[in-house]
Amino acid sequence: MTKSRYPAFPYIVFMTIFIVVPLIMVAYFAFTTSTGEFTMQNIIRVGDYIPVIIKSLFLAFVATAICLLLGYPFAYIMANKTSNIRRTMFMLIMLPMWMNFLLRTYSWMTILENNGLLNRFLGFFGIGPFEMINTQGAVVLGMVYDYLPFMIVPLYTIMMKMDHSLVQAAQDLGANPLQVFTNVILPQTMQGIKTGITMVFVPSVSTFVISRMLGGGSELMVGDLIEMQFGSNNYNPNLGSAISFVLMIIVLICMSVMNQFDSDDIDKEGRIAI
Amino acid sequence: MENNAIIRLKDIVVEFDGESVLRHINLDIRNHEFVTLLGPSGCGKTTTLRIIGGFVNPKSGDVFFDGKRINDLPPYKREVNTVFQKYALFPNLNVYENIAFGLRLKKVPDEEIRERVFEMLDLVNMRGYERRDVNLLSGGQQQRVAIARALINKPQVLLLDEPLGALDLKLRKEMQIELKKIQRETKITFIYVTHDQEEALTMSDTVVVMRAGEIQQIGTPIDIYNEPINAFVADFIGESNIIDGVMKKDYLVNFAGRDFDCVDFGFEENEDVDVVIRPEDIKISDPEKGQITGKVESIIFKGVHYEIVVIDGNGFNWKIHSTLYEEPGREVGLSVIPDDIHIMHKMAEAEK
After folding, report:
1. Which H helix or E strand runs over B38?
2. What is the pLDDT of residues B117-136, one digit of tens each?
3. Residue A186 touches partner B, C-beta closer than 8 Å
């Protein structure tokens, strides 16, 4: 390492102030009482909320899976279009993102309400009304709607860089469309899949706006739980930090499991999967 | 001859965005031959190759493989394999698995795969590299892997799309010889695309010269070089002096202000023709002994020979290859024997 480290100095300062210090503070609050003495009580109390955490992980997992299933083919089609169509499609994906996040989620409320747009529309045909708002389905829908672009963009970026001559090489060597996908396209886009999953799963698991608005009070998620600890009537930053801390550890574990799984796949002496 | 055509292209037309890329290509490729499609960039040679590989569908016309029409057969069902221009090795697989790819898809037993991969490694001189990461190989080594990967499927026809384009001159020459050797040993039909005329002449049994989506001439390297069918082929295959002439009658042509005996016949009387003379066929002498006189304009040392430019009385620049030095500015005579004067029909104006 003969390279000078001085240019990195501003970033190190920035990261220390805005990332490392807050993390240490979260950890400090998680392991102290309101008077500043060390305690494990907060962490132990997180145990009461295990069902909420599991539900949050589950909903986030479902939303991420749906985003991947929708986003992957979309990104693939988009990447293979001419540049004009590509730009239009990209615009359509990004356009809703320019609107306020709360506004977007509110609009889903008016659509899904018991006498909302969708139920009234279905009512014309004598169907329904269905209970759509305040369900887990509505929460997942909101997550998918809000976070789908975060799946598509990294996938699209990596697919644009994909070497199409490899697809032809595989076809040439006798690979049918499915074999081309598993042996050439999937390995080449794995990095994009990993990035997309991370970018959708992490915000989904800790969201509280979507679950509050589309899940009502009934579908409490871990994000709501944390937010409640910082609310006015039962202010408890120590418990809030403890839940955040545990959630962070769980997410870290999830991510490293995913990375482990993936590198295993490639390592197998470079053998192809058929 | 027609019976053993392994590939037959019949009246192939290809258009990209309304622009015609191939215009009515008819081509028979005989089994076990080394055929080169040669032409400048944009002449349609790579498109022709991709038609055979199945990566481009012709707008009209038929592709036959061993007598069967294969227009609608997707690439993965065709008994041809391709060596791509940029090798297109799978970066996530090592050398062994890259070569084994085709056999793995066919679910060939491991034992047989092993045997055939090593056979291929021997063929391309890459034994000992089987565990290597393909991303860390040199261009020449990657090319060998690409060739082995294509040949292991025992295709009837191997398509090679400018496979040596990215290699340096010395390596290219070595690979040319090696490819020719591999072709002779395996007896597989090679269809080779290149814009390098020397490469084409060195390796091929048959050369197909293409230009602007049309085939200009098909023949052995010697035929193509010695008897080019028109001024384009003459110019593209090696260097040429191309001068306007008039065919006075059989065996007599007028150019550069005088009549020359020649060996060509069958032209109309007083037909305008292109006269092609190779630079190495012109002899320099004292002015009074030459058929044409001119002044040495420039001389460049090229290694094996000098390239000399002589301007004659009509202002035509003659390119001459000679092993002898000539002083620039000197008056010289040029002469050429009848055998070395090649007469060609003028190409239609539109084709130029």
Report:
1. strand B34-38
2. 999 999 888 999 989 999 99
3. no
